[in-house]
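Predict structure. Chain length: 162.
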Amino acid sequence: MKKSLAILSMILAVAVASPALAGDQPGNSAMERAKIVLDKVKADKKFITSKNLALTDAASAAFWPLYDEYQQNLENLNMRIAKLILNYAEAYRNQAMTDELASKLLQESLAIDADELAMKQAFVPKLQRVLPGVKAARYMQIENKLRAMVRFKLADEVPLIE
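Prediction complete.
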């Protein structure tokens, strides 16, 4: 599982961060490449989740609609993160970072973190209604590990503000 999660997170992080910071590249647009990679990541993530939860048919019927709802909410957060990175990348490339823009980006970053926590707090009780405690905790571990690896890779790829 560790190897799969590491590869999955690295692909996602590179797809999101690298095109934003590198600027224009020949061939497919950065957004087209990111979409292709994200579609693959979604399929791989679902596979990893399925293999690590080993749900019964009854639990699966209740869990997967919740999973899809949670992934949609995560996708909304991920789009906000991508927009934040793109805004940062544009200012970084153009050497146009101001105190005002830096404050705005920082506030959006904090708002994304707060919204992610609120989303988890709302999701966990739903999850616990359909899965035993251990499986609910395991699922959240999978999600948290993936997000932590992606955030680590993003932190590694995105240069410090100047």
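Summary: DSSP finds five helices and no strands in the chain.
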